[in-house]
DNA sequence: CAGAATCCCAGCAGATACTG
DNA sequence: CAGTATCTGCTGGGATTCTG
């Protein structure tokens, strides 16, 4: 309501830039991508995302929950059951990231080929 | 052609994961986004991307060039002129990232609101 | 099972200075 | 203008341990 907030990601230290940093942080992209397949429990997420530690999983989850992208649901059972799901806002984001992830899967071979060309050109002084 | 290479980003240390790391690295997303607006000179990119240092700009540019996403063109003039442009592969990527950047610009306000709710709920012990 | 807390290190990234 | 080189610090993130 007050003036217009600067959400342009190209401007340093503006809110939009911080959002970009959250969303493209090392694990957030994979986490959103994993949750796009459906709500999941903590340990399932850990198994799905190769290489993530429990610390980074819970830390990233907390940031995304704070941003309103992920919802956390606790069923108070004897063995605690906690489920994470995307919020509607998170689903929108997931659509974009899933597209990106799909493109990577399809293009990685081309990129590796390009790397080979680049390295070969460099080694020829 | 040989077997199937593992390009699934969810698998640790596979080629696809490395590509994801490049593409979502701190500056690469903004750099691709900036180049999506058209080929640009070095100093223009630096001015466009708030907060980037020359070191990180040239470093990120080099990684993306190696991946075959960005092309570097030198006109050997007295004042050196170097232009960077997206390759066709880079254009494909830019389409995905521009969508993401647009979503962020549109959703940042919602996210800030969510952060406020989250923090308020926490402070009430 | 689902985390929080602590310790600790590698490497990302910034500042500065120099070069073609 | 368009970088590279070096130095250094800061912090992202891993390993481990502990709790409800």
From TrEMBL, chains A, B:
Q: What is this protein called?
A: DNA-binding HxlR family transcriptional regulator
* Organism, as annotated: Phytomonospora endophytica
* UniProt keyword annotations, A-Z: DNA-binding, Transcription, Transcription regulation
Top-rank taxon: Bacteria
Q: Identify the residues that the record assigns to the HTH hxlR-type domain, covering every copy.
A: 14-112
A GO term, aspect molecular function: DNA binding
UniProt-listed PROSITE patterns:
HTH_HXLR
Q: What PANTHER family does the record tag this protein with?
A: HTH-TYPE TRANSCRIPTIONAL REGULATOR YODB, TRANSCRIPTIONAL REGULATOR, MARR FAMILY
In terms of InterPro entries, this protein maps to: HTH_HxlR (IPR002577), WH-like_DNA-bd_sf (IPR036388), WH_DNA-bd_sf (IPR036390)
């Amino acid at each position: 309501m007050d003036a217009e907030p600067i959400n342009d990601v190209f401007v340093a230290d503006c809110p939009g830039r911080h959002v970009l940093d959250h969303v493209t942080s090392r694990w957030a992209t994979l986490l959103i991508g994993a949750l796009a397949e459906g709500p999941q429990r903590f340990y399932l997420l850990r198994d799905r995302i190769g290489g993530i530690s429990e610390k980074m999983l819970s830390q990233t989850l907390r940031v995304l929950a704070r941003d309103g992208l992920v919802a956390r649901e606790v069923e108070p059972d004897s063995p605690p059951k906690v489920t994470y799901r995307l919020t509607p806002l998170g689903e929108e984001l997931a659509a974009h990231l899933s597209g990106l992830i799909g493109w990577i899967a399809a293009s990685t071979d081309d990129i590796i080929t390009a790397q080979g060309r680049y390295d070969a050109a460099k080694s020829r002084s």
